[in-house]
Amino acid sequence: MLPQAQPEPKVVTRTYKPFSPEFFGRVEETSDEERTTHGGSCHCGAIAFTVTLKWPFPKYTVNSCTCSICTRNGYLLVYPMRQDVKFSGDSKEKMGSYKWGHKVADHRFCKTCGSSVMIDLRRPETFGETDPRKDMVGINHVNILEASASGTSSVGYRKMQWVEGQLLNFHEATEYHPEGVLFMD
Quick one: CATH architecture of 27-156? Predict the structure, then answer.
């Protein structure tokens, strides 16, 4: 049997820091003609909203997170700017809030039917005031009325987990660090 060559040592090339200003800095300007507005609601209709997305479905990719709460809530997420989500009447007052684990994200749900509506990604305690052009929320795609028949495409986050306040993707990362995931190339 021939000896096998040893692989080259890996070098840290980038660090993934979820919810960092760099992540939220990916703001793409789109023309008004490309933007689409959709109506949405919780299951019982107590919470109603409209959301304007940068692109129409299916061009707008829907994201699926496999963390325990997103999996249990059945989240399929789109990330519009906060200013592009408009709640009707007293819908905001009808939402409850739940923060789990490290209390990083504010999961919002209907107080009447329990439907998961959105994830509030604002973190002023960490990043200070957010630039309005980078202030996004995660809206549960399932609650967007026109989306179910639109043939959307989705991208899944695989095996992500919060460790020491960081979201770790163990399929892409080879080790973790308190400052984020260390990607090895």
Answer: Beta Complex (2.170)
